[in-house]
Amino acid sequence: MQNIPYAVLFLHAFPLNKNMYEEQFKALKKKNIPFIGIDYPGFGNTPVFKTFKSLSQYTDYIVSKIYEAGINKVIVVGDSMGGYIMFDMFKRHKEILKGLVFVSTRAEADTQEVKQARFTTIEKIKKEGKDFLIKAMLEAQTSPSTKQNETKMEKLKCLMLQATEEGIINALTAMAHREDNTSLLGKIDIPTIVIAGKDDEKVTPPPVVKNIADGIPNAKFYEIPNSAHLPPFENPEKFNEILIGFIKKFAF
Prior knowledge:
The chain is 47% helix and 15% strand. With 252 residues, the chain is of the alpha/beta class.
C-alpha cells in the first residue's frame, strides 16, 4: 500500500457528489497537491448501503476509504452535509486530521421544525420520487448569478440526479438525527477556516456559518461573492484562492 503523508479530502454537499469539486481537483492537480474525493453511499459512483441511517456510519465509511488509499492525514473540505461529517471526524478520528475547511454548514442540530420537514420530504420521496426535491434544491442552493448561467445549472442538476432515492432518504434521516456540535467548537485546536456564500439566504446564511468561526479559536471566516450554498462550485476561482492559500500555509 502506498503511503501518502497528507492529502486534501473533499466531502460533498447534499444531494450532490464529489464532482461538485471538479474545479478544485483541477487546481490542486496543477499544484501537485494530493487530494481525494469520496461519494457517500447512494450518491455519485457509490452504491447505496441500505443500513445507513446515522451520520457516524458515513464518517466511518469515509475514514475507511482514507486508510484504504494509504493516506496518513487529511485537510478536510466539507460543504453542508460534509461539514456535519467533519464534526464527527473531529470527535472520533481526530488523529487523521491536519486542517479543517468548513463550507456553508452549521454547528447546530436540526430544530424540531426542520426535522419534521426532513421526515415529510422522505415520505413524499417514497410516494412521488426525487424530482421535486432536486427542483427545490436547485432553487434554494444557488445564487442569482449562478441561476443566470444555464451551463452551470444544467451541470448541477445532472450531479443531483445521480443520487439514488434510497441514498437521499438515508442522508435525510442521518442529518435529522445528528448531534448539536456548538459545544465542540471551543475544543477544535487544529488550523481551521470557515467559508460562506454571500448570497446564501435560504440554507446557511453567512451569520449562521460565521458562528462556527466565532466559536473556534483562531479560525478565519471568509464570505465568497456570487455564490450561495455551493461556493466551490459557484465561484471556484475565489474559493480556490482561499483554499490553496490555507493548504500552503499549514500543510505542504
